[in-house]
Write a structure and sequence with these properties.
This protein is an alpha/beta fold and 317 residues long. Helix content is 46%, strand content 20%.
């Protein structure tokens, strides 16, 4: 009888240990602002693949796109804990965190921001206003351009109707253009019908939407960055063990080291696509990009002037 009881107790303990070991892996659900096969999500897929490889038994990540949760609703889904992670541009949650898009006007690499204290400041405001832990971001250094169907008059775009976002509304207006708001899927029809004269967009991805068929000119140099943040719900982050948080941090730092190489490779591919499409690049000089960035710094400064004043030098080093 004693042997039987010992065996039952032993089996129960072993079962509990096994169950506890299995429960130790945190299965995180992430929402990405674009479809997972988009060029803008490939880097995040590399991040999640590395987490799933390096953090096996500790953390795993699965990702859904806007087909599951609409792009502009994902940040709130993160804040409220509907999803555990979010991969999306800070300008999508500018209403909740007006100063969050400072990463888009940074001139240094993400790894440098971690070393000089900028990362900590950005993380703190995400903690306070978004209930989020800021891990890192991708697409730093991938600049926006103006693309048009017809030539501009020097550096003036008087009367041009340009598809825009809050990032460069003020810049487009300063050039004499009329910013037009529309979702990316609507741009193709607008170009086809001539209801817009062009659009603002990064170097990447215009062929993915078929816009290259109508585009004749790209104006630069590129301005501001198409930065996309990787966030974890703060309540979920606090529930993770130190080992789990450390693993996510290690992969974030790995991405920061790899990103400049990935960017250089993708820059070449995207440039070749535009060259093949016959899109002519027009260089309007360094003042073009400076004007865009100064105007956006002003916009960001209105949301949290003291924060922006302290952070700007750290993002310029």
């Amino acid at each position: 009888m004693k042997k039987r009881i010992a065996a039952v107790v032993g089996a129960t303990v072993l079962g509990a240990v096994a169950t506890g070991a299995g429960a130790q892996e945190a299965k995180l659900k992430a929402a990405a602002f674009l479809p997972v096969k988009s060029v803008f999500v490939i880097g995040f897929a590399r991040f999640t693949d590395e987490v799933n490889r390096l953090c096996t038994g500790k953390v795993s990540i699965s990702t859904v796109g806007p087909e599951a949760i609409k792009s502009f609703e994902q940040w709130n889904a993160l804040k409220t804990g509907v999803v555990d992670m979010h991969y999306g541009p800070p300008n999508f949650y500018v209403g909740a965190l007006p100063e969050g898009d400072v990463i888009s006007v940074a001139r240094n690499e993400t790894a440098a921001q971690r070393k000089n204290g900028a990362w900590a400041m950005i993380n703190e405001v995400h903690n306070q206003k978004m209930n989020a832990q800021y891990l890192t971001h991708l697409f730093g250094g991938v600049r926006f351009h103006i693309y048009t169907l017809k030539p501009a008059q020097g550096n003036k775009f008087d009367g041009f109707r340009l598809r825009s976002t809050p990032i460069y509304d003020a810049f487009f207006k300063s050039l004499g253009a009329l910013p037009v708001r529309m979702a990316p899927p609507e741009v193709h029809t607008a170009l086809e019908r001539g209801t817009v004269d062009g659009y603002g967009w990064p170097l990447y991805g215009i062929a993915d939407f078929g816009w290259h068929k109508y585009t004749k000119f790209r104006y630069g140099p590129g301005f501001i960055s198409a930065a996309v943040a990787i966030l974890v719900n703060q309540d979920k982050w606090k529930s993770l063990s130190g080992e789990q948080r450390d693993c996510l941090t290690r992969v974030s730092e790995w991405v920061e080291g790899e990103w400049p190489k990935w960017r250089a490779e993708e820059d070449g591919r995207q440039q070749a696509v535009q060259d093949q499409a016959g899109i002519k690049y027009v260089d309007l000089g360094p003042g073009f990009a400076r004007q865009a960035e100064e105007l956006y710094w002003e916009v960001l400064g209105k949301g949290n002037p003291e924060f922006v004043r302290k952070l700007r030098p750290l993002l310029s080093q």
